[in-house]
Design goal:
- By secondary structure, the protein is an all-beta fold.
- Helices cover about 0% and strands about 50% of the residues.
- The protein is built from no helices and eleven strands.
- Strands 2, 4, 5, 6, 9, 10 and 11 form a seven-stranded mixed sheet that branches.
- A hairpin with a 4-residue loop joins strand 7 and strand 8.
- The protein is globular.
Length: about 110
């Protein structure tokens, strides 16, 4: 079955960086677009970024554009989210998502001084 396992979350200071990873299994990873979403405290689910199956196209929410970079390594069945210039409002549980199918369990990102 499809499994998505996120890692890399943690505590960062404002202006800091974190890199999230999502290890995928149970499907042919290179055939599917992938995305990241997040849910902040007391907020609804927010789509953050998406990447085409071969990495040729990437998409970002306006709230993270210019600060976050999504990428993937199809040889490793892994999608990444590089987060730079972090802000307190980026604090959220970040989920890896196979669109139309499955979600990971989430990894917590907290941005605080």
């Amino acid at each position: 079955q499809v499994q998505l396992v996120e890692s890399g979350g943690g505590l960062a200071q404002p202006g800091g960086t974190l890199r999230l990873s999502c290890a995928a299994s149970g499907f042919t990873f290179s055939n599917y677009a992938m995305s990241w979403a997040r849910q902040g405290p007391g907020k609804g689910l927010e789509w953050v970024s998406g990447i085409y199956r071969d990495g040729s196209d990437t998409y970002y929410a306006d709230s993270v554009k210019g600060r976050f970079t999504i990428s993937r390594d199809n040889a490793k069945n892994t999608v990444y989210l590089q987060m730079n210039s972090l802000k307190p409002e980026d604090t959220a549980l970040y989920y890896c998502h196979l669109p139309g199918n499955s979600w990971g369990q989430g990894t917590q990102v907290t941005v605080s001084s």
